[in-house]
Amino acid sequence: MGRGSVSKPLKVALLGAGVVGSQVARIILNEPDTLEQRIGRRLELVGIGVRNLDVPREGIDPALLTTDLDGLVSRGDLDVVVELIGGIEPAHALVQTAIEHGASVVTANKALLADELGPLSRAAQEKGVDLYYEAAVAGAIPIIRPLRESLVGDEITEVMGIVNGTTNYILDKMVTDHLSFDAALAEAQALGYAEADPTADVEGHDAAAKAAILAGLAFHTEVTRDEVFCEGITGITEAEIAAADQLGCTVKLLATAKLTSDAGSVIVKVHPAMVSRKHPLAAVSGARNAIFVNSREAGELMFVGAGAGGAPTASAVMGDVVTVARNRRRGTAGHVGAAYTHRPVAPIGESTAQFYVSFEVVDRPGVLARCAAVFGSHGVSLRVVQQSYLDDESSAEEHPARLGIMTHATQEARLSQVLSELREADFVGSQVRMMRVEGF
Amino acid sequence: MGRGSVSKPLKVALLGAGVVGSQVARIILNEPDTLEQRIGRRLELVGIGVRNLDVPREGIDPALLTTDLDGLVSRGDLDVVVELIGGIEPAHALVQTAIEHGASVVTANKALLADELGPLSRAAQEKGVDLYYEAAVAGAIPIIRPLRESLVGDEITEVMGIVNGTTNYILDKMVTDHLSFDAALAEAQALGYAEADPTADVEGHDAAAKAAILAGLAFHTEVTRDEVFCEGITGITEAEIAAADQLGCTVKLLATAKLTSDAGSVIVKVHPAMVSRKHPLAAVSGARNAIFVNSREAGELMFVGAGAGGAPTASAVMGDVVTVARNRRRGTAGHVGAAYTHRPVAPIGESTAQFYVSFEVVDRPGVLARCAAVFGSHGVSLRVVQQSYLDDESSAEEHPARLGIMTHATQEARLSQVLSELREADFVGSQVRMMRVEGF
């Protein structure tokens, strides 16, 4: 079966030996025979680029380690470079150098791809090398390959997912244990599920990078991170969580990429949403990820699994390494699924959704009618109105009430006009909050 | 983007123009520009092999139709043959001829692949052509490609799924509407979800073919349909459905492929099972399919979507057609992921599971202890014992009772010994029924 074959091994270099990198190194070093059977050629790990040589790394020959990452990727004899250091620089320059020197690249770097997928894909295609990145979105869940290949004969209309485990854990805690955002975040940090600086997760930036990658792949176009509409979960109130529950919904941070109805542009957005418990994404709890795909012919598909963690991410990376190595062995590569349409990202105002709007009013006769009139004057029709009285001591004729209004589907631009008008109305007695609704 | 390019188009022949074939023809004929963008070369549908020329086929030029299928696949200039006629012969001979004449093959034919995947893969590999079959298992759900590529750097330990929509619909009706099997089948037939002769579905043969394909792919070995342990849903009683419900379970027809603990052989089986409502497969209702994959590094993954139907199946077929055509354009093909291990299928007796055993007893003092002793003497320990009295008029000391016993996990061979002994015991007053349990 090729064992003991005289053909030269394929040379792999690894950049980064952190949580994922050390697992990838372990698999390559410990499973040479299995990998050879699957690839048809032996894999040789020729070097591991690290920042610090002094960290003890069990099971890894120190002679493999180098701090000269640029020297490693410019050797000129590499078949595959696996980039697992993350961040934009020096990862970007190293990947470019690897491609220029004829190596195929496997990366899990969502931040890099969200900015540079287009240019890197074109560079790889020109050099005839592969660029694979299954691990960059939703960890071990195979989503890149299905979008790039399985559904390539179909027309995808929407990709929607829970792609950030940290925020999903925090929202779960808020819904299930009735914690405030701050308390849930503190718990997630104590357990190591959230970082000391949680900004990238809780403000939605991490999910937005993944949304950009998914949108580009699904719609054969180029979308960068800064084009993604992005709203985090920090402002969510306990009142909104309770209202969602009353309406049979839970709250999730969703990343959505959607073709507009004329298929001419795309909506790409990350925001918290009230998700009906009837929707399959509502049941995806804890640190799991899930991606929901809607396409013209295949209908609804859903993919669920571990969205992060060393071993799951390493599984996705190794799937790419084996595929790229097989292509290399057969002397074929460079089909990187580059974008061929130019669908611009539409402004969020063109997005259509249902909305949940909540605020306090002074409960005078006629106030509800005046609220409804604000929605009506902008052509937004109401689906559910919740009214609850607050515990304040007030006079009988002027006690404050909390209104929660769910609209029918409408354009976000119209809803913005409603919100502006409500914010200036004299009968509105608090901040006006809005949350998007899915699957209701 | 290559529109108006002078490079020769890729020639495609289609075998079959039924529910799926007509949809595939429609996509190829109606979307030439989109397909050309995705493939990098134009696709030309050169012929459609059918049984009967007289059937009216909207939107298809009659000049494309032929009843000489053998002549069509032996033209010698075909790039891709799409086989959608189903069944073993003549599909088998036609696919072989297509491969011999240098065409890559896309097929949705699970019956053929369950018997001949190994030999056909080897033939394709020898000829340097592709053999793709995403649509053969679970319709539009991308499962073949994830198993063949995404998880190829990992070690899959188990694949378990609901892969037959007809039986899933019938079982749903039995659970939700408390129908008998016969009544639920009649309803499924009336709605067109079950065929007039439902044998292939309700006896599990269709699921067994898919289990053979999944097992071979997941464990890099060859498994044929007749090696799959197969038990259908026809014998399921309303009492078992009610007992499952009491235990927080539903009943599903599961197809399972599992590596034995020493990874030396595989268990491949199709049978109804009580599935805990906590297990993600329990929520997969109606005609949907779902596949659950467990692997060493990636952990648990689940894929859910439409398991059948013309358009969803056509989506999977077209994904393969585009992939195969891309390979063809680049002059590369023939990596068909042939088996390289030789893991035999272990007898069902070596399978380990929890079991639910039910039967009637004459409720004399000491009978429960005697029942328990039968299990204990074979080393099978009990987890739950349900006892319920029947409505018969009986004397006070000898009224019949129904016992339902769920065991802890044990080898099926041991359970078989328990069943044999119970069937001969004088205190057992009815047929002894057994159902396997999952996720409890």
TrEMBL record, chains A, B:
EC class (word): oxidoreductase
Keywords of the record: Amino-acid biosynthesis, Methionine biosynthesis, NADP, Oxidoreductase, Sodium, Threonine biosynthesis
Organism superkingdom: Bacteria
Entry EC number(s): 1.1.1.3
Cofactor: a metal cation
Catalytic activity line of the entry: L-homoserine + NAD(+) = L-aspartate 4-semialdehyde + NADH + H(+); L-homoserine + NADP(+) = L-aspartate 4-semialdehyde + NADPH + H(+)
Entry keyword annotation includes RNA-binding: no
Domain ACT stretches: 356-436
Pathway in which the depicted protein is active: Amino-acid biosynthesis; L-threonine biosynthesis; L-threonine from L-aspartate: step 3/5; Amino-acid biosynthesis; L-methionine biosynthesis via de novo pathway; L-homoserine from L-aspartate: step 3/3
Protein family: Belongs to the homoserine dehydrogenase family.
Functional description taken from the UniProt entry: Catalyzes the conversion of L-aspartate-beta-semialdehyde (L-Asa) to L-homoserine (L-Hse), the third step in the biosynthesis of threonine and methionine from aspartate.
Protein name in UniProt: Homoserine dehydrogenase
Species of provenance: Tessaracoccus palaemonis
